[in-house]
Design brief:
217 residues; 6 helices; alpha/beta
Length: 217
C-alpha cells in the first residue's frame, strides 16, 4: 500500500469507529467494543454491514500497531490471549442429558443427602455454550439455579487431547433461585477438567451475556 493510500485508509478506519485521528489505544479498543456490541447481527435483526465495517477498521488499526499501549517499534509483542465462545454440539448436549438421567444425586464432591433420582428436573442443568480464555473455562447455562440441591452435567475435556469428549455431573446447593455464577473448586477442576486453570458456570445466561464475554477480551 502506498503512503498516501495508507494515510487515507487510517483516516477511514478512525471514521468508521467514530474517532478522530488523535485517538489513543484505549479509545480505539473501547470504540471497537462499543460498536461491535451494538452493531452485532444479534442486535440488528441480522444486519451485519456496520459490524463488518467496524471489524475491518479495527483490524487495520491493530495491524498498524495503534491498539497497543506503549508499542516499542522493532520488538515483537507478546501474543494476547483471545476470548472465544463456542456452541456445544448436539452430541455433547445429548451425552449430558443421558448422564443426568442415569447418575446418582449424591456426589462425593458435595455433601448432598438427597435421595437418588433417574430423571431430570428443574434443578438439573446442561450448558449450551462454553467460553475460553486461555486455560480458563466458562460454561453458559440458560436455566436458572433452583433453591436447594442442583446438578449440572458438563463436557470436561475441551483442553485435553482425548479422542472422545468426557462428561461429568457436578452437584451443588443454592440458597436462592435465579441467575448467578458458580466457581468450581480448584481440587475438582484439577481432577475433572484436564488442562483447565479455572472453571466457572454462569446460570440463566442469555446471548447478550455470551456476547459481553468475548467482547470484553
Amino acid at each position: 500500500m502506498e503512503p498516501v493510500e495508507k494515510i487515507n485508509a487510517r483516516a477511514d478506519a478512525f471514521w468508521a469507529l467514530g474517532l478522530n485521528q488523535n485517538a489513543g489505544p484505549d479509545e480505539i479498543r473501547e470504540a471497537w467494543r462499543h460498536t461491535a456490541f451494538h452493531a452485532h447481527p444479534d442486535h440488528t435483526n441480522g444486519d451485519c454491514a456496520n459490524f463488518a465495517r467496524a471489524k475491518e477498521a479495527y483490524d487495520f488499526l491493530r495491524r498498524e500497531g495503534l491498539t497497543v499501549k506503549g508499542k516499542a517499534s522493532g520488538h515483537p509483542r507478546r501474543p494476547k490471549l483471545r476470548k472465544r465462545v463456542i456452541e456445544l454440539e448436539s452430541a455433547d448436549i445429548d451425552a449430558c442429558r443421558v448422564l443426568l438421567n442415569t447418575a446418582l444425586t449424591h456426589d462425593a464432591d458435595v455433601d448432598d443427602t438427597q435421595s437418588e433420582t433417574h430423571s431430570t428436573s428443574d434443578a438439573d442443568h446442561i450448558p449450551e455454550a462454553v467460553g475460553f480464555y486461555g486455560r480458563n473455562l466458562t460454561y453458559f447455562v440458560s436455566t436458572p439455579v433452583q433453591e436447594g440441591a442442583n446438578r449440572v452435567a458438563l463436557p470436561t475435556s475441551f483442553l485435553a487431547s482425548a479422542r472422545q469428549m468426557e462428561t461429568e455431573v457436578l452437584n451443588f446447593r443454592s440458597k436462592g433461585t435465579g441467575g448467578g455464577e458458580v466457581v468450581v473448586p480448584e481440587n475438582i477442576t484439577t481432577r475433572k477438567f484436564p488442562g483447565a486453570k479455572s472453571v466457572r458456570i454462569k446460570f440463566e445466561a442469555d446471548q447478550q451475556m455470551r456476547d459481553e464475554f468475548w467482547l470484553a477480551g
